[in-house]
Amino acid sequence: MHISEGVLSGPVLLGGAALAVGGTAVGLKSIDYDRIMSVAILSAAFFIASLIHVPIGPANGHLILGGLLGVVLGWAAFPSILVALTLQAVLFQYGGLTVLGVNTFNMAAPAVACFYVFRPMLAKSGPNRFAAAFACGFLAMLLSAVLTAGALALSGDEFREAAQVLLVAHLPIMVVEGLVTAFTYSFLAKVKPEVLTC
């Protein structure tokens, strides 16, 4: 779901950059010394997961693990995703440096939203935890796709069709993202519950 260089309009680029800077500033303030390792590990997981592209019709899709990053890291998802996207842009030319702010916001803002929506449900053990974790992963991917499609649509009428294709192409990946988040969160809750305390 990386938007490439030269696609977005100036106002969209500036707006995305400003929102990403604000989110990253809040995220950096929320990281204490004891959580640096969790941020680094999840940043690496995001980096690897979003490198694996699966062709879906005319588009490519990939996991982003936004829901998992959100419920584990909260606001720290912003700097975590920013670092991973910067490395992808520099090393593999995914996305680009001028669109880094928009891409970061499109993936990190849904993660933070899921933190606030699903964190209370996931804190309680019980049969609903798996369903809540699935919904968290699914919704984070859905919101990221909507934000990415919105950024494309705001940049010109010629991108509206591409925005629609992007949104529809990611529907199957949303299900996979939900399942990965649900199983991973359930596993961490059993073997390493202290990682999940934000």
TrEMBL record:
Keywords: Cell membrane, Membrane, Transmembrane, Transmembrane helix, Transport. It is found in: Cell membrane. It comes from the Bacteria. One of its GO terms (cellular component) is plasma membrane. The chain crosses the membrane at residues 36-56, 63-85, 91-118, 130-154, 166-188. InterPro entries: CbiM/NikMN. It is a multi-pass membrane protein. Its main location: membrane. Pfam families: CbiM (PF01891). GO terms for biological process: transition metal ion transport. This is Cobalamin biosynthesis protein CbiM. The lineage of its organism: Bacteria, Pseudomonadati, Thermodesulfobacteriota, Desulfovibrionia, Desulfovibrionales.
